[in-house]
Specification:
Layout: H1 2-27, E1 31-32, E2 44-45, H2 48-66, H3 68-74, E3 77-78, E4 81-82, H4 83-106, H5 111-127, E5 134-136, E6 143-145, H6 148-169, H7 175-194, H8 200-227, H9 236-253, H10 265-270, H11 272-288, H12 300-306, H13 311-334
Antiparallel strand pairs: 1-2, 3-4, 5-6
Helix pairs in contact: 1-2, 1-8, 2-8, 2-9, 4-5, 4-9, 5-6, 6-9, 6-11, 7-8, 7-9, 7-13, 8-9
Length: about 350
Amino acid sequence: MLYFFAFLLALIGTAVFTPVSMFLARKFDVMDYPKARKVHRQPLPRWGGIGIFAGYFFAILVLVIFFPSFRELISYKYKALSLMKEFSGIIFGAILIFTLGLIDDKKPVQALTKLLTQIIAAYVVMDYGVRISGLALPFTKGFIEFPILLGQIITVFWIIGFMNTINLADGLDGLASGIVAIASGTFFVVALLQGQTSIVFLAKQLSLSAILAAGLTGACLGFLIYNFNPAKVFMGDSGALFLGFMLAVISAIGTLKTAAVMSLFIPITVVALPILDVALSIFRRMRKGMGLMQPDKEHIHHRILSFGWTHREVVLLMYIFTLLLSIVSILLTVFKGKV
C-alpha cells in the first residue's frame, strides 16, 4: 500500500507543481534559449526540476504525516544503525544538490564549485549512513568489507557518477526523465525481490529503498506529461542532478546492500546506456583536447538523429534499450543465487 501511494502521490504532485515551476522560470527568466547544439527551436522554461522536487517530497511528506506504517519504518533502528538517520541524510543531501542545480540553471556555476558541492552532498548522505561498505566475491560466499576510507571514496564516486550521468543524458525531450522512470521502477522491483531476508534491518532498508524508488518513478512520469516531445519545459540541472542523486542513494540502500555478487552490476546495467554515452563523451573530448565539461552535439542520441530518425523515435529507442537492460537486471536478481 505504501508503495502505491508513494507512486501515485508523487505522480499527481509533480503533475500539479510542474506548471508552477514553468511560471517561476518565466518570471525569473530561467529559460533555455535555442543555440547551435540545441535541438529545440523556441525558448523553454528550464526550472522543471522544481516540479519534480516539490512533487516528490510532497509525496514523502504525506506519507510521513498520514501513514503510521511509514513513520514506524523510518523510525526503525538496530544498535548503531538507524533508518531515520539515513532518511534524514538523504533529505539533506537532496536539498543541497537541488539548490545547486537551481542556482546553476539561473546562472552557470563554475565547474570546480559544482564538483565540490556534489562531493559535500555525497559526503553528507554518506555520513548519515548511506554508504557502500563492501563487495561480494565472485563465485564464492565470501564478502570483502572495505576499509572505512575506501568505502567512503567509493560511495562518493558512486553518487557523483550517477548525478553527472543523468545530467549528461538530459539531451532530448523526455529522455532523462523516461530513463530514470524505467531505472527507478527497476530498482523498485529489485528491492522487493531482495526484501525476503531474515536480517530485519536489511529488510527494512530494502523496503525504504522500494518506497523511495516507487515515488521517483511516479515523479518522473508526472513530469513526462510536460517533458515528452514536444516538451513544454526542461528539468534543468536542478532536476537532473536531483534524479541522479536519488537513483544513487536508492541503489546504495537497496541493491548494493545485498551480499549477492551481482549486486554491483544491477544498477550499473540499468543505466548502462547513459554510462556508455558519458564514457564516449570523455574519450572524445580528451582526444580533441576539449574540456571534459564542454558541451557538444555528438552524443549517441544526436548521432541517431543525424541518420534521419525523428525526435520521438530516438527517445523511444533509448527507452527500449534501457527497458531491455532493466529486464536483464531483474533476471540477474532472480538468478543471483545461482551465480
